[in-house]
Amino acid sequence: MFGAERAVISLVRYLAADVLRGQRYLAPVIVFLGVMGMLFSSDAGRPLEAYSGSSALLYPIAAWMAVVVATSEDAVRREITVVSAGGWSRVLTAAAVVAVAIAVAMALVGAVWPVVTNPHPYTAREFFVGLGAHTVCALLGVGVGLMFARPVFDSIGRTVLAVFSVVVLTYPLGRATPLGWVLDALGHNRFSLSVLWAGVVGVALVAGAVVVGVRRA
Amino acid sequence: MDGYLDGVLLDQVSKRYGRGPWVLRDLTLEVSGPVVLTGANGTGKSTLLKIAAGVLKPTSGRVVRPASVGYVPERFPSDVKMSASSYLAHMGRVRRAAANDVLERLGFVGSLTAPMSELSKGNAQKVALAQAFLASDVLVLDEPWTGLDPAASAELVSLLEDRTALVSDHEGHFVSATRVDLAGGHVTIELSRVVGLDALEALEGVRSVLARGSSARVVVAPDRSDQVLAEALRLGCSVRSVR
């Protein structure tokens, strides 16, 4: 329906403006840029290998950012927005779009950074593999963040605990998780189809979080 | 949407939060024109308004509402960083509605471009009302007179007079509207030697059951008290009093 799309686009503009007016987005951005600076302060290794650290970093940062986006409006203002928009599904879709857009922007930063700072030369192919890997990790993070943020979990304490637990548990599980598929491929300085499959999981996770949110609200 | 009427229809609506007590039981209400909702604190006015506006889903029952609903919550948040003018502009775009003159009519004073957190309570309430009046069909307002000065209160009444609106108001601002008392009176049945408490609780019209040892106090909607009483006797309970 054309009207619904227009409403979602207007909601994306509104929620993005609201996130920017609040300053909670600054904390994940500063942590991201600070750790990026540390990761690439010296020779970070072969082109794709160098991307594994920043991809691993982007996963929790994107989850954090998704929680910031999902909870930027307090619960009462969110109710007004839901009534104005004509339903939870439009608002949660718009919030997911904003979270993904910010995550993709950070993925771009993550992919460009070593091209500028790493002494190893990058081919275009390596750059796009890196951009894809970062985007996949960011999508997985956004999915995890939205899955436990309001309206799925109403209290920010439970949200933080759940997101932190999942993020911390993801790393030791290694290649058992989609994040592990991506990091494994980058760590071996090669591209594999499993990165694409991880991307499919990431998109499914984000979409699933929207659906769960609509059902829970 | 699925609205076949201009107003809101709530059909046999019940609501409980999780496994908690019933906040609303079998409530049927058709809103066309201005309707004022009254009732003591805790009778479920805000819950009913949230269900009518579409913020909450009822546990059971059916709600039919038109496409464009405006909603003002009981307390508009006081820590919003966005300015009033950009908030209203964004809400207008979301609704694809033209700006209205509600702020001027309510006598808004203060900065439209400063963060809304810097506005006084009354002026923030006027912004909340202005966004709700962007809606073209129904208004659902929870205690909208809170914080308004007398002039703005009178203006709000005149703004509402020709609208379809469901408004909670326990201070009697809106005398010309149809009144619906949410408590609606009730019948209290005191029982002793209680058996089958769960069966009683599940009966239509039962608002609450308070068990103390082998006795219980059952609060029932007036129109269902005969059936509930008959069922209590059939189950073998003793009736101590009905008031």
What's this, in brief?
The complex is a heterodimer of chains A (217) and B (243). With 217 residues, chain A is an all-alpha fold.
Q: In words, what does this structure look like?
A:
The complex is a heterodimer of chains A (217) and B (243). By secondary structure, chain A is mainly α. Chain A has helices at residues 2-21, 26-39, 47-70, 75-85, 88-117, 124-148, 156-170, 178-187, 194-216. Chain A is elongated. The two termini of chain A are 23 Å apart. Chain B has 243 residues and is α/β, with parallel strands linked by helices. Chain B has two domains: 1-184, 3-Layer(aba) Sandwich (Rossmann fold), CATH 3.40.50.300; 187-242, Alpha-Beta Plaits, CATH 3.30.70. Chain B has helices at 45-53, 84-95, 102-105, 121-132, 150-160, 197-201, 225-235, and strands spanning 8-16, 22-31, 34-38, 60-64, 69-72, 138-142, 164-168, 178-181, 187-192, 206-212, 215-220, 238-242. In chain B, strand 10 and strand 11 (215-220) form a beta hairpin. Chain B is elongated, with a radius of gyration of 21 Å. Chain A binds chain B through residues 3, 6-7, 10-11, 13-14, 17-18, 21-22, 74, 76-77, 79-87, 217, and chain B through 1, 50, 53-55, 57, 67-73, 75-77, 79-82, 86, 90-91, 93-96, 115, 128, 131-132, 134-135, 140. Chain B: InterPro entries: AAA+_ATPase, ABC_transporter-like_ATP-bd, ABC_transporter-like_CS, ABC_Transporter_VariousFunc, P-loop_NTPase, RLI1. Chain B: This is ABC transporter ATP-binding protein.
Please supply descriptive tags for the structure shown above:
heterodimer, A: 217 residues, mainly alpha, B: 243 residues, alpha/beta, Rossmann fold, Alpha-Beta Plaits, 2 domains, five-stranded parallel beta sheet, four-stranded antiparallel beta sheet, 7 helices, 12 strands, 26% helix, transmembrane (chain A), membrane (chain A), transmembrane helix (chain A), ABC-2 type transport system permease protein (chain A)
